[in-house]
C-alpha cells in the first residue's frame, strides 16, 4: 500500500507540567521541640522523671508543592519502634492523593510516656511517591522523623544529709530543754 498525501493542517496542542509533590512536617501543638526540615526532622521530648507523662505533640504533614502539582502518597515505616518504647503514635497510616497545599486529615500525634527507664532514639521513615494519575509514580527520597526522649529514675533524697539534719534538730531540741531545766 502506498503512502497517501494528506496535505497540511494546524493542530492545537496544550500541556500542563506539574510540580513534583513536596512534604513539610510542622508542629501544631503540644510538648516537645520539632527541628530540622527537608528530609530529616527531630522531635525531642527532653527528659522526664519515671512515672510522669511526658505529654504529646500534634504534627501536620502537608503536600507543600505549589501551582499545578502532583499529589503526595506515602507509607510510614515504623519498624524501628520496639515493644515497651515510650512513644505512642497516632495517624501514622498509609495515605494517597494528598493534593498540593493540603494536609493529612486528622494529622499525626506522638506521645511520650515516662513508664520505662532509659534514653530513647527511634526513627520513623516516610516513603513517598509523587503521583498524577497520567504516568508512572515518581519515587521521592524518604523523610525521616527522629524521636528522642529520656526517662530518669525518681531522684532519691540524700539520706546522709537528711539524717544529719535530723540529728542536729534533735540535739538542738535536747540542748534547749536542758538549758530550760537548769534555769
Folded structure, characterized:
- The longest helix is centred in the C-terminal third of the chain and has 24 residues, at 159-182.
- A six-stranded mixed sheet has the order 2-3-10-9-5-7, with no helix packed on it. The chain has a four-stranded antiparallel sheet with strand order 1-4-8-6, with no helix packed on it.
- The relative contact order is 0.21.
- It is mainly β and 183 residues long.
- The chain has one helix at residues 159-182; strands at residues 23-30, 33-37, 40-49, 56-63, 71-77, 87-90, 95-98, 108-112, 118-131, 138-152.
- Helices cover 13% and strands 44% of the residues.
- Residues 153-177 form the Ice-binding protein C-terminal domain.
- InterPro entries: Ice-binding_C.
- This is PEP-CTERM sorting domain-containing protein.
- It comes from Candidatus Propionivibrio dominans.
The CATH architecture comes to: Sandwich
CATH class descriptor: Mainly Beta
Low-confidence residue ranges: none
The profile of the biggest β sheet is: 6 strands, mixed
Name given to the CATH homologous superfamily: Immunoglobulins
Protein name: PEP-CTERM sorting domain-containing protein
Domain Ice-binding protein C-terminal: 153-177
Pfam family, one: PEP-CTERM
InterPro entries: Ice-binding_C
Amino acid at each position: 500500500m502506498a503512502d497517501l498525501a494528506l496535505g497540511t493542517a494546524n493542530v492545537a496542542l496544550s500541556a500542563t507540567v506539574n510540580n513534583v509533590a513536596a512534604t513539610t512536617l510542622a508542629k501544631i501543638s503540644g510538648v516537645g521541640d520539632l527541628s530540622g526540615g527537608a528530609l530529616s526532622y527531630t522531635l525531642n521530648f527532653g527528659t522526664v522523671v519515671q512515672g510522669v507523662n511526658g505529654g504529646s505533640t500534634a504534627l501536620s504533614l502537608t503536600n507543600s508543592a505549589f501551582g499545578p502539582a502532583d499529589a503526595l502518597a506515602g507509607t510510614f515505616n515504623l519498624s524501628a519502634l520496639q515493644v515497651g518504647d515510650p512513644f505512642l503514635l497516632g495517624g501514622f497510616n498509609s495515605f494517597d492523593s494528598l493534593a498540593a497545599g493540603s494536609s493529612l486529615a486528622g494529622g499525626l500525634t506522638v506521645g511520650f510516656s515516662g513508664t520505662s527507664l532509659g534514653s530513647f532514639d527511634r526513627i520513623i521513615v516516610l516513603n513517598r511517591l509523587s503521583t498524577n494519575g497520567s504516568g508512572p509514580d515518581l519515587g521521592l527520597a524518604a523523610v525521616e522523623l527522629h524521636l528522642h526522649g529520656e526517662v530518669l529514675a525518681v531522684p532519691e533524697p540524700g539520706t546522709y544529709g537528711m539524717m544529719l539534719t535530723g540529728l542536729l534538730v534533735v540535739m538542738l531540741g535536747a540542748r534547749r530543754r536542758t538549758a530550760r531545766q537548769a534555769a
